[in-house]
């Protein structure tokens, strides 16, 4: 056990002492060196702590815990060695023999930034399309919603019906509802993402009797919709009501 610990600590110390020399190389970022030392030291410390747990359990004659700690130590030791080799591979541009998918050692901030960038790229690449996902041309259906929708416009009404109800919808759209004929729109619950200038309801009829009714908790861009902020999400609608 002591030999294993000595090996790990020697590798970490050697890497830490050599790190300033690495940083003098123009192709290597000094910030990456600092982060790499931290990653290697953290994993090595975890392996040393796990080894200490084994020793403590053996001294206490708790052999079951000692056995479990042995598996934990083996995993943490392997991770520490992998982190060291993978970090060197990243710094000196060679393939880590332990990686199968070009894994690069990153700190948590780098991983979070990469994940956020991937999500943003996926959304940018997703085709939003043009026009409405639902076009109301008769009164055969007046209630919509549920699930999620991503597109230009969720619902467009080209005829007048008794009322248009949108319930419990999550939507990322440029505009939610476009009225080309007079209608009453009821939105019950929901979570909506709109771009700057995007609207929940656009009324193209110039009819002053058009109503919009909002029921329950409705969120727009993460903010609860209220009588105080609703006007910025309406165009041509004169009578918004909250229940």
Tell me the series of helices and strands, N- to C-terminal: HHHHEEEEEEEEEEE
Structural class: alpha/beta
Helix content: 40-55%
What is the 3D shape?
Answer: elongated
Distance between the termini: 70 Å
Return Rg in Å: 30 Å
| Binned strand content | 25-35%
**Low-confidence regions:** 21-28, 101-105
Per DSSP, the total helix count is 4
Number of strands: 11
Overall average residue pLDDT: 78
The main pleated sheet reads as: 11 strands, mixed
Describe this structure in words.
Helices cover 41% and strands 27% of the residues. It has 243 residues and is of the alpha/beta class. Strands 1, 2, 3, 4, 5, 6, 7, 8, 9, 10 and 11 form an 11-stranded mixed β-sheet that branches. Strand 8 and strand 9 form a beta hairpin. The protein is elongated and about 85 Å long. The relative contact order is 0.07. The model is unreliable at 21-28 and 101-105 (pLDDT under 50).
